[in-house]
Each structure stands twice: as structure tokens, then as C-alpha cells.
Amino acid sequence: MSGRHLLSVADLGRQGIEEILRLADSFKEVAGRPIPRVPALRGKTVATLFFEASTRTRLSFETAAKRLSADVMSFSASTSSLEKGESLRDTIETIDAMGVDAMIVRHRSSGVPARVTAWTSASVVNAGDGQHEHPTQALLDCYTIREALGESGGRPQTDFSGLRIGIVGDVRHSRVARSDVLALSLLGAEVVLVAPRTLLPPSLEGWPVKATADLDAVLGELDVVYLLRIQAERAGRLLLPDLDEYHARFGLTRERAGRLAERALIMHPGPMIRGVEIAPEVADLPASLVTRQVRNGVFVRSAVLFHLLAGPAGAVVGEEDGDG
Amino acid sequence: MSGRHLLSVADLGRQGIEEILRLADSFKEVAGRPIPRVPALRGKTVATLFFEASTRTRLSFETAAKRLSADVMSFSASTSSLEKGESLRDTIETIDAMGVDAMIVRHRSSGVPARVTAWTSASVVNAGDGQHEHPTQALLDCYTIREALGESGGRPQTDFSGLRIGIVGDVRHSRVARSDVLALSLLGAEVVLVAPRTLLPPSLEGWPVKATADLDAVLGELDVVYLLRIQAERAGRLLLPDLDEYHARFGLTRERAGRLAERALIMHPGPMIRGVEIAPEVADLPASLVTRQVRNGVFVRSAVLFHLLAGPAGAVVGEEDGDG
Amino acid sequence: MSGRHLLSVADLGRQGIEEILRLADSFKEVAGRPIPRVPALRGKTVATLFFEASTRTRLSFETAAKRLSADVMSFSASTSSLEKGESLRDTIETIDAMGVDAMIVRHRSSGVPARVTAWTSASVVNAGDGQHEHPTQALLDCYTIREALGESGGRPQTDFSGLRIGIVGDVRHSRVARSDVLALSLLGAEVVLVAPRTLLPPSLEGWPVKATADLDAVLGELDVVYLLRIQAERAGRLLLPDLDEYHARFGLTRERAGRLAERALIMHPGPMIRGVEIAPEVADLPASLVTRQVRNGVFVRSAVLFHLLAGPAGAVVGEEDGDG
Fold first, then answer.
1. What ipTM describes this predicted complex?
2. For a FRET experiment, which of A13, A244, B263, B271 has its CA 20 to 30 Å from that of C61?
């Protein structure tokens, strides 16, 4: 990872992704200790600035920061001065002036985290910006696939060559899809987008992917089925009649789950709506890695914060001496 | 206390209650230290999951957890993915996956904390569920009575035989009443419910209590008058004309306070509405233990968390070495 | 500072202000350490009770408290029992009973922090009460002026004799103006209020100030232009046609900035609305100390908390030994 920030998977490149995943292994080990904490970021302050609410992602970052002994400052837009007419820039400069070392930024508009970097000396992590990117989600997805491959076939490895991964749903509006396509491709996987024409990006030029509107046609060939979240509040805009219709065409029904390849994996970034993207009982199959994705999210986010704030990759993850 | 969870006073039995109260004595002592903190739960994470808001109870649990050096994760429903259609189970499994050791759950529906135990490996503490139970409230009430008895008559003792305790108000809808009846009876007290027929449970079969609708008839015989909170927003449903009428019939007026037995105690779980359940000046009498209940709530909740997470009852409560 | 509380600048007197500013120097130095934290308030709990929302002020106090290793308890009115009909007094006594050492109180009504002192044994800090005072804002403003004077003319000094400071805007409704007038006058500065008649207090008797409605007439003579926040939601009540008119008459436009004295300073308590109180480009001039005010706010609030809770002024600010 070249810079001080993590705005896009593209900032990392293949080598950067591999570094983060290796570092996340250390934090997985830390999580198993009696005191799951290292002193690496003692005295540092990590601020979460969620201009768009997401309790799960915020808690994941905050837990990841606490594992590193960092202080956490939580800023949510709903109670902030933005409502009093303050500009985003002045809000950022205000938080910066209080002395923070990293800002974790989520915003409904694409590009906000990048703009934030101009207004602070802190490291900026994109925690989801509009329809642009959500790089830590892609990292935890890669980590989870790598972990599952390791369990079924030996040591974890980040060469995803030969893997075929289907990303199913509203690709067009999904920052998760965008980051995952980038990351999975960098690691060598073949990505197939499964969506109706209306839910694909207007142009796929430059995207290293295939696309189809027919889930059933590709289902048996997928090593991973990655189901995107459908935003019920947007259903009308999806040009789909309703959620039942969505489930029928793109949901991972019980019947479809039965036609998956033997060791195929099921993933979802959460929160999932059972009965829409996935049948209730399918979400509980052993092949479903959904809660494992959440668990790994903490390890990967600790790795990202460590990498950005604690020094060069590969540094030793120290023991907690029990007094933190 | 047998299990890993605290869902009901019935889980504890008399011996379990006595253990918690003795342990709470230790935390009362800790509170008087220059650094009121012990390292017992260092590295553990206690999550508060309040699907129904209660700032006071949440802060009490969080303070109790911090006294044990635990990390605290606050989850409130209003900003959560439940609004996006995620199931309660998936929310719980998500929080669990981030790595928490205890979940403190409050929910408007009875039985939710019990269901939560199936979805997490963490210890679950019921912080109030619907009209079912609120066991830590009953424990702090018992602790407060025991403490007051100790002050007026020697050593604290948990044998409440011979004590007559009146619980006044909307017993029917009160989880506090339910837990208190159980706990007080287990310790030997005689409980008298004071409520109009409409605010008593449909059947009292199996409840070790007497009941009356006439507060004045029993007032002079009570050792403790325990006033339940009246939920103003429910007044219409109470089949009472209005809050003034409630105050006239069931409020602890100044006049009634004058007719209490000499050493009678006044209790209320809070938040109290002066002028409704209790006359403003009565709330400030020395006999009123309301703020003491709050104070003891922290000790009792520390005791519960210690008991569930730190090992067998009776373990030594270590000194903080000043570096926490 | 005589008492246990900080309710008004008048509690401090000139000597008290000078003590706080000197102590703030220590915390400015602490902020530059690898671990910007001292153990002075370890084991103490600082509660923020913001009955009126202000994310920036709350975060500033919480950061200041964490620098001292204090625990922080956040209480916000919106989710509190006040909505259930509990009195302010009972809310305060409840928080007090949980064991807190300081209460930082913000409230829309003047005098609330003073009343709170009767209900708690904790130290009370006024974080803004109605149209009364906001003493820590005045302290950070004094600190910022002192720092800037030190940079341009040698050692920081708190004798503001000969300085002319213009406070511009809605003085009448501003607690910031009230505290700043007191503090700046105590340090020897000459204060000029710049506001239309309708936005001045009904009587200036006893205020050691001059007043004018004509910003342009005094602009060139000011050493500091202090712009008050205009509350857009109150614009109608300001008897001004609209915000554009306000900007034209009282805003620090680019043209006016060009007519400032050479070393004049520009200040604003934030959040500022660019284009109303200040032209967008003027806010970014080197003369503008706005973000420096925010930064200094943390130092000054650490100094206040240290002073109130850690003992006599001048006590050594200890080294963090790296295990906190």
C-alpha cells in the first residue's frame, strides 16, 4: 500500500492486498488471546465519521481500532453542525484540529473520502462512498475466500486463478461490487456479474468481467456466489416489479442452492434480507460465510489501521502486557 | 447462579441471589477506592443491545462494565440494520461475530433475551424484556433493602422473613414487579400487590403474593412501599380517568407518607414522575432510597458481569495496580 | 479559580484565567508527545450532559478528558428519561448516583449548570447555558489570542491592554459574547460590540464595552474581529430582512478583510456559515484562527478538568508511562 490513505482497492494493487491479508492473519491470532489487544496504536485516535449511518460497519472499525489500543472518537452526521449549515470541509477541519490520526469516512456521495484527504493530516479510510467503493469490504471478502480455500485445500493462498465468482444483484448501484470486482480480479479470479441489464453499469468497458442476466445459466459453474444487498427502498427504481420477482429471478433459493457446485461458497456483505436475496434456510447452510465475513472484517480493519498508522507492513504485532 | 446467562430471577434461586449480593459488597468497596476499577474483565467486551431505549439502565451497565476494565460496545436499535429489514437473529449473529463476551439485551418483547442465547456464544443478561422480567433491577432492589436493614439493625442480611413489602401500581404490565415478586419471595419477604383489578395480572395463581386495591388499608403495615412507574403514555389504557386520579388512589402523597410505619422504606425503580407516583416532597424524605437504588445498580451489575464472565463466585476482586 | 465548579468567567477572575492558560500550555506540550496522554485523572469519570446538542463541543470535552486518562460517560437528552417526565433534578441525581466526578452541562436555559451544582457532589462545568455564558469558549479564545500575540511579538502574555477587539453579530442572544466580554475585559482588552440596536442587549449598563452598529467605521482599528455565529433558524426574529442583508452589513467580506489592520486576527466560535458571517475565501486567510481555536479548545478544557479534579493549579503534569 503506497499512500497514507485507503480510498480504493486500486490504491493497493495485488501486492498491497496480499500484505493486508497476511497482516490480518496476525489479528486473527490476537483475537484468540485471553486479552485480544495489542499496544500498537496506543495514544492514537481513530475517528469514525459516518455521514451515512451503518452501525455494523462503524462497530467493526471501532472494535478493530480498540484491538490496537487506539482511542475512538465517534462522529455521526445526524447530530452534527452540518445541520446548522457548516460545510463538510469545515467539519473535517474541526475534527482534525482536535487531534485525530485516522478518519474513517462513510458518505452517500462518491468521492467524499478522497476530498477529505485535502482537509486533514490524518489518514483517511473509505468506509463506503456513494456508488464508488468500499475497499475494506472487498478486503474482508478476499480474506474470507482465502481462508475458506485454505481450509478445504491446504494453506491459505491469495492466488485466486481458476476461481469463478458470481456477483449477483444490483451491481450498478453497488460500491461493494465495484471494490470486489477490482480486488478479486487483481488476485486472479474470474468475475461474472449476474444482473438484469438495468442493474448493470451503463458500460462495462474496462471492467475485467463477464455479465449475464441468467443466474441459472451460470450457477453450476460458480465457486463463489456473492449476493449483493437489495435496497428495498429502491425497489421501485430497479425496474423490477417487486421483491418477490427479484427473489424468483436473482435470489439464492433452496432449489438453486441445491444446484451449486460441491464446494461452492455463499457470501453476502450484510445486512441480508432473508427471503429476498437469499432463502432463509440457505443463509444457514455451512457453505454460507456471512457471519465469518463479519468476524474477518474486524481482523482486516485492524490490519488496515495498523498498516496506515503503525509503520511498514510486516512489523511485529506485539504482545499485550496485560495492563492496557 | 447455574448458567452462563441471567434471564430471570428464577435462574438464580435464593443461593444465587445471595451470592450476587455478597459480590456486590466487594464492588461497593471498590467504588470507594481512588481508582474505582479492577482488572477482572480486561480484554473482554460487553455489548449493550438496547432495542428499547433506556439511557439510565444502559449507562449503569456500561459503568459497571468499565469498573471491571471491560471494553464496552454500544448498540442501539434506532440506527441499526433492523430498519433495513435484517432479522433480529442476523443482527445478533453479526454482533457476536465481532467478538463480544456478554450481551446486555433490552427489548420491548418478552422472551427476546432468551431467544438471543441460541444465536451467540456470549453470556446474555436480560436488561428488561417486555412485560416479562428485569432481573438486575430486582437484584439491586434486594441489595438496597438488605443494605438499609443492615444500617438500621446490624449486619446486612438477606433473610427477609417477616418483612412486608407492598408493590404499588401497574403490576400487570411491569417486568420490574414480576422480577421483584420472585426475588423478594425467594428471600422470605411477604409481598402485597396494591393495584386496581385492571392493573393486576389476569391470574395470580402461583404468585406467592396477596393483593388489594386499597393502599390505605395496608399502608401502615408495610416495611417497604415500592412504587412502580406509571407510563403516562399508557394512561388511557389503564382504565383510570387520569394521572390525578391515579395519584389520589395510588400515589404516595404527603398525607400517606405520614401514616407509614416508623422505619418504613420508600422505593421506586425510576424514572419517577413527581406528582404522579409520589408527591414531590416525599421523594426527598430520608426514607426514600431512590438514588441509593441507582448507586447500588452499578455494584450489582458489576457483580453480575463478574460472576458470568470472570469465573466462580467468591473469587477475589483484585486490586487495580494503577495502570489501567 | 476559587470553587469546585466553572459556571462563569466571573468565577475565575483575572488570576484564575491566567492559571488556566498557563496550565493549557502544558497540555499543548502533551499533545505533541507520541502518547498524548497523562494519567492525572485515571479512575475519574467525566460525564457530558448535553441537553442541547453540540457534537463539536462534546467531542472537544471528551477528547480533553481522555487526554487526562479519565473515563467518559455520554448522556444526551434526546434518548433520556426527561422525555418520560422525569425532572431535571432527578436526572442529575441519577447520573450522580452512578458515580461521576465532573458533569459537563449544556442546556438551552440560562442558569441550569448553576442549579445542577445543588444536586451533585461532582464538579460542574458550564458548556453553554441559554443566553448566559460559555466560559470554556472564552478561555480558549483568550488562549488563542495570547498564542497569536506570542508568535508575532515574543513570549505569550496575558496582558491584553491596548488590544481592541470587535465582537460582531447577534450579541444579544450570544452566551459566547457574554463570556468573551467578561474574559477579554478582565485581561485588559477594550471590547467593541458591533451589532444593530436590535441585536444588542437591552441595556449595556455595567458592561465594560463600547457599541456601534457600523462595522466599517471601526474595522480598521480592530486588532481582533470576532464574528459571532448567526443562527439561520432565528433569522426572522433578528429583524433583519435576510441572511444576504446580514452578510452585507455585518459579514466579513473580502473587501472588508482588505481593510483590516496589518496584523489583525479573525476569530469565530464555529460552526461558521461561509457566505453569511464570513466570506468563503476570508475564512481561509492566514489571519483566520478558527481551526486553531478548535485545537486550543482541547488544551484549555484539559486544563479546566485538571484544575477542578486533580488538585491545585501548577501541579506537575506527569509523564504517561506507556501503559494507559
1. 0.92
2. B271
Whether residue A121 sits in one domain with residue A208: no
Question: Residue C294: CB partners within 8 Å, gap ≥ 6?
Answer: A93, A94, A97, A98, C56, C60, C270
- pLDDT score, position C316: 42
Q: Domain for residue A2, yes or no?
A: no
Identify from A46, A51, A84, A309 which residue to disrupt to test chain C contact, counting C C-beta atoms within 10 A and taking the largest count. A84
Q: Which of A67, A134, A172, A173 is catalytic?
A: A134
**Chains adjacent to C (≥3 CB pairs closer than 8 angstroms):** A, B
Output the average pLDDT for chain B: 91
Q: What CATH number should be reported for the domain holding residue B283?
A: 3.40.50.1370
Look at residue C156 and tell me if it is in a domain: yes
Do B193 and B51 reside in the same domain of the chain? no
Nearest CA in chain C to A98: C295
Q: Are residues C35 and C67 in the same domain?
A: yes
Task: State whether B171 and B280 are in the same domain.
Answer: yes
Q: Do C270 and C142 belong to one domain?
A: yes
Contact A75 C55 (CB under 8 A): yes
Q: Is the pLDDT of residue C24 over 60?
A: yes
b/e burial code for range B169-208 (CB count within 10 A of at least 16 → b): bbbbbbbbbbbbbbbbbbbebbbbbbbbeebbbeeeeebe
Q: Report pTM.
A: 0.94
Active site residue B57: yes
Of A4, A33, A42, A56, catalytic: A56
Q: Is A84 a catalytic residue?
A: yes
pLDDT reading at C321 higher than 60: no
Active site residue A144: no
Which residues constitute the domain of residue A270? 135-293
Residue B154 corresponds to which cell in the numbers above?
446490624
Contact B270/C86, CB-based, under 8 Å? Answer: yes
CB A129 within 8 A of CB A105: yes
Residue B303 sits in the same domain as residue B187 = no
- Residue B242 pLDDT level (bands cut at 50, 70, 90): confident
Neighbours of chain B (3+ CB pairs under 8 A): A, C
**Is A277 found in the same domain as A182?**
yes
Does residue C51 lie in a domain region?
Answer: yes
**Which residue's entry shows cell 440560562?**
C110
Strands B265-267 and C224-227: unpaired
Q: Which residue of C has its CA nearest to B34?
A: C43
Residue A239 lies in a domain: yes
Average pLDDT over residues C106-128: 97
Same domain for B288 and B175, yes or no, is yes
Helix B290-309 × helix B135-153 angle, to 10°: 120
Across the range C160-186, mean pLDDT stands at 96
What is the residue type of B62?
A: E
Please answer yes or no on whether C94 and B294 come within 8 Å at the CB atom: yes
d(CA C137, CA A180): 47
In chain C, the number of structural domains is: 2
Catalytic residue from among A5, A67, A106, A175? A106
